[in-house]
Amino acid sequence: MKRKFLAALLGAALTASALSASALAEEAVFSNPGTYTATETGINGDVTLTVTFSDSEITDIQVESSETPTIGQAAMESLTETVLANQSLAIDTVSGATLSSTAYIAALTSCVEQAGGDLETLQNREIADSDSDEEAYPVTEADVIVIGAGGAGLSAAKTADENGASVILIEKSSNIGGNTLCATMGINAAESQVQTDLGVTVTVEELIEAQMNNDDAIEELVTTFAVNSGETIDWLASLGVEFSAEGGNSDFMLMATADGKTSTTLINALNNSLDSTDITLYLNTAATSLVTDENGTVVGVVCEDADGNEVTFTGSSIVLCTGGFGQNSELLAEVRPDLANAITDEIAPTTGDGLLMAQELGADTVNLEDIQLFPHVIVGYGLLTPMNMPGGFNPDAIFVNENAERFVAEAFEVSDAILAQPDGMAYCIFTENNLNETLEGLMELGYVVSGETVEELAEKLGLDADALQATIDQWNADCEAGADSQFGRESNLNKIEGTLYGYNFGVGAHYFMGGILINEYTQVVDTNGDAIEGLYAAGEVTGGFHGSYRVDGSGTADAFVFGRLAGKYAAANAME
Fold it and tell me: Beta strand pairing status for 253-256 and 243-244?
């Protein structure tokens, strides 16, 4: 695979010749040369750096972590390359991997301090511009252009390559994996060899019936999905994914058995498989408009790099795999005015680019207003599932608004009540009895704060101390009386006392059931019901398959099954 990572990945170009070894050798920077170790908290746990120093150079950096390979680990590898090449600490966090790179930088700084390093000198050394004459985009024409490198885009690119097409894969962010990496469940399928080997009997008809339980779902898309789902599972297994029938919440769901979420395992397998292909990948490249010929056939896409430089890619088939629009608050409010205060747990830059570009060409849409909400999302971190929040579905905590007042009988599903609060934000207040590993990790990352007094906690959360004290006093009095006098909550009537903890959260736009309308061949359909020639789409950017709500396990399956089909049909169109 031709992986082309643009300079904007780190905000500066990487170069191995930034500082000559002879020049560095003249300057003693580290008074205690040797090997040192430091550990900081990343998004998935500890990030440990082991760094070796001479008196003048950082000679080696080894990283141990459980960060996501295509995001956190990739970012830290790039940071390592930059530091070693430039002998500089003038580095910044990597967009899309902020928590991982923050942990990396903190651990590296600690090691430098242990080595007696001159921090001021290292932080003032500029990252030199690349002296490479290589073009930023050496390849701009291919049979198939895939826009978006999440589960759908990776599947489309890989399958198009398998079918003999030349492929360019374009990704707006600095990472691959997209919003698929937010998925927490397994993947639905029927009649795969994997299921047969596991002793699981699921027919295509049974899977269709389960999916069509949603009356809004388009039957031809559901049928296409079910018929091709088993083959997709077997294809993923051929890439090294091991599946289990244990751990899912339906008879149709398979879980990947490697460490981490099923979605992470699937993305890693696809990522590794691309190394043996001729696919050209461009990161930090944002699609802005589609190009058509005189007949209205889509033949290319105009993009911009991180510096705003424009480049046009041309191909016989263009595949949109750009996800939803959770990070486009303006579009979100336009489609659903009640979600004007919603945030998102999506990690990819899902701003609706594919949807908007297709609509400009007359593409039809369906179910745009049908958006799955997650009612407990921490800005900058992501969602807290019930098993990780204080008390789960029935929280052993109180929720207050910006006025430090309770506003609802606390529960997991209280999205409407939260959205009705000022700025759609709430604060969860709980005690030491509810600390768990996840919340302790969020404390280390700074998302959860604590206070020995109400006043101390209120100050850290930015709330009025007197108002919060009054709220807690009322709650504690209700607990003593055995009844919630304000909202009638019936469970976990436990006092808020002792060391207090809190964090700010909101309602997240988690999954977009609606989007561009496609047919069973993954062609984008216009408002007249005709296919737009040369334009294909797959994954969360599309609508119709889910109808108005998503069946558990079908979101991840949607990306891989229809992504694979889009790659197949796009390649066939190009090869004709």
Answer: antiparallel
Going by pLDDT thresholds of 50, 70 and 90, the confidence category of residue 195 is very high
Query: 475-500 pLDDT, tens per residue?
Result: 999 999 999 999 999 999 999 999 99
Distance CA 407, CA 289 (A): 44
Angle at 238 between CA 233 and CA 243, to 5 degrees: 50
Contact 395, 492 (CB under 8 A): yes
Residue 263 has phi, psi (to 5 degrees) of: -60, -40
Tokens representing 163 are: 């079918």
d(CA 451, CA 209): 52
The single-letter code of the amino acid at 77 is: E
Contact 100, 47 (CB under 8 A): yes
How far, in whole angstroms, is CA 126 from its chain's centroid?
A: 31
Sequence-ordered list of residues with C-beta below 8 angstroms from that of 366, at least 6 positions apart, any chain: 218, 514, 515, 517, 543, 544
What are the CA-CA distances from residue 554 to residues 188, 470, 513 (Å)?
6, 46, 11
> Full-prediction pTM beyond 0.90?
no
Cα 205–chain centre separation = 32
How many Å separate Cα 477 from the centre of its chain? 43
